[in-house]
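$ fold --in a.seq
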Amino acid sequence: MAAFRLLQKIGRKNLISSSIRPLFTQGRLASSQAEKSEWPDDGLGLGSYPNLPDISAQTKAPHGWWDIQERRNFGDTLHESDDALNVWMYDAPEKSLYPPHEALRHLLTMFALVGGFMYIGYLYGKTDSGNRNKYTPKQFPYNDNHHIYKDGDPTQRLKIN
């Protein structure tokens, strides 16, 4: 009896998933196999290659594709300008996330922060709290007169000819 109920539940899950799945794939197929029209005879020689609409990959849904990175399904016909419409090329969407005045404000804020940190670093490096040059000469005992003493002993001076 329990095995029969388990088989019924599995059968229901498969029926539900098989009835829902076509709803998701219809949208993908419609977007991947869009209306195809003929090319004008402009001398490029595209002939019978499908004339797909110019839809950037950035505007497509990010999930549900066979190739998630390029946002296309296996066997899809590539657009004639696929290299210009892929995810990695700049594409100004119709409705930008930030209006131009807000983008300019963000850019100026970033420049102000970077400039402020650079100015603080400039002021810090300008202080008189010691020599900040990391390439100073090496310090030796006996008041940096190591070249005039023999073996570092100040009682024995070197004889200079």
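$ fold --in b.seq
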Amino acid sequence: MSSRNVFPSEKVFRLMPALDIIPLLDINVIVFGILKVSLALYTQAKILGDIFGLKEFKINVLPLAAFDVVISALLSHDFITQLYVAKNIVPLMYVPILVVIPLAVLTISLIKKGEPKALPLKLE
């Protein structure tokens, strides 16, 4: 009963017999889910390769995928809990991740770089 309350748009689609939209939504979720996971694994492997100075970062993809599966199995108890976390806890993480960390990295990089030196102009 609670699943019908979670997605009212699905209930509306089921009330329209002429339009069979549910399979299209399923395909959309599958394709973009695979794209999202692939992009996340690529970025994780690339970041680890950059951090540890590895020339070949693709070797990290399989261990990272296994780690992601284990972590997601531990963290996902049920769907309602995931919705609660997405609505109440994830917005609290937006400010540090999207504002504080980039500003800190920018500040550190500007301090390390120092003042930019003017390049001599060559007029030809």
